[in-house]
Design brief:
The protein has helices at residues 2-29, 60-69, 80-85, 87-95, 116-132, 150-159, 177-185, 200-210, and strands at 40-41, 49-55, 74-78, 99-102, 140-141, 162-164, 168-169, 192-196. The protein has a single domain (31-210), classed as Glycoside hydrolase/deacetylase (TIM Barrel, Alpha-Beta Barrel), CATH 3.20.20. By secondary structure, it is an alpha/beta fold. The chain contains 8 helices and 8 strands. A 5-stranded parallel sheet has the order 4-3-2-8-7. A 3-stranded parallel sheet has the order 1-6-5, with no helix packed on it. α6 (150-159) links the parallel β5 and β6.
Length: 211
C-alpha cells in the first residue's frame, strides 16, 4: 500500500513538473520581447511608433486618412494573402509614406508549428508580393500572434529579417473602445503600440486617440 502510494505521488510530481515546463515554454513563446528565443525590437529610439497588424483591409484607407490628418507615420505589418486581395490598398499604404513589415503569408493559427521550410516560404512569399506591389525593402517581421520559438528564430536567421514587437498592446481586437483609449492614454515616448487595421472599431479608436 505504501509503495503504491509513493508511485502515485511520483507520477503526480512528474506531471506537475511537465505542466510547469509547458507553462514556462508557453510564456516564453508568447512574450517575444523577453528575447529568449530571438532578438526583438520593442522600443524606438525616438517618438512613439504606431504599428498596425493584419491588413491591408477595407478599413485601412480610413486609418490612413486619420494618420495623414495628424501627420503621423506608422508601420503596417501586412499579411501576404491580404495583399493579394487588396493590392491597391497596400500601394496606398506606401503612397502615404508609411513603413511596411512582413506578418507571414497566411497568419495561420498553426504558424509556430510549421516546418522550417514552410515558415521560410511564408516569409519569402510575403516579401515577394510586397516587392511586386511597390515595397523596396522589407526589413521587419512580426510573427502571427507574437509567437516566437526556435524554429521561427532559425527561419529568420535564414531570411535576415529583424523582429519587431511592441511595448504597448492595445487589445483593440478584444476590449471596448473606452478601455483601449485608456490604455493608449498611458503611452510614452519610445513606445511601439500594437493596433489592428483589420478591425472597424480601430478607426474610431485611433481617431479619438489622435484628436
Amino acid at each position: 500500500m505504501f509503495i503504491r502510494y509513493n508511485v502515485i505521488m511520483l507520477n503526480f510530481f512528474i506531471l506537475f513538473l511537465l505542466f510547469c515546463a509547458f507553462a514556462v515554454l508557453f510564456y516564453l513563446c508568447f512574450n517575444l520581447c523577453l528575447q529568449f528565443f530571438h532578438p526583438a525590437i520593442c522600443h524606438t529610439d525616438g517618438d512613439v511608433l504606431y504599428s498596425f497588424d493584419d491588413g491591408p483591409s477595407i478599413y485601412t484607407p480610413q486609418i490612413l486618412e486619420i494618420l495623414k490628418q495628424h501627420n503621423q507615420k506608422a508601420i503596417f505589418f501586412c499579411i501576404g494573402k491580404n495583399i493579394a486581395t487588396h493590392p491597391e490598398i497596400f500601394a496606398e499604404i506606401l503612397a502615404h509614406g508609411h513603413q511596411v513589415g512582413n506578418h507571414s503569408f497566411s497568419h495561420s493559427n498553426f504558424f509556430g508549428f510549421k516546418s522550417l521550410k514552410d515558415i521560410i516560404k511564408e516569409i519569402q512569399d510575403t516579401d515577394d508580393i510586397m516587392k511586386k506591389h511597390g515595397a523596396v525593402e522589407v526589413r521587419y517581421f512580426r510573427p502571427p500572434f507574437g509567437v516566437i520559438n526556435p524554429t521561427i528564430s532559425k527561419a529568420l536567421k535564414r531570411t535576415g529579417h529583424s523582429v519587431m514587437g511592441w511595448s504597448v498592446r492595445s487589445f483593440d481586437t478584444v476590449f471596448s473602445e473606452k478601455i483601449v483609449l485608456k490604455r493608449l492614454k498611458n503611452i510614452k515616448k519610445q513606445d511601439i503600440v500594437l493596433l489592428h487595421d483589420s478591425k472597424f472599431e480601430t478607426i474610431s479608436t485611433i481617431r479619438s486617440h489622435l484628436k
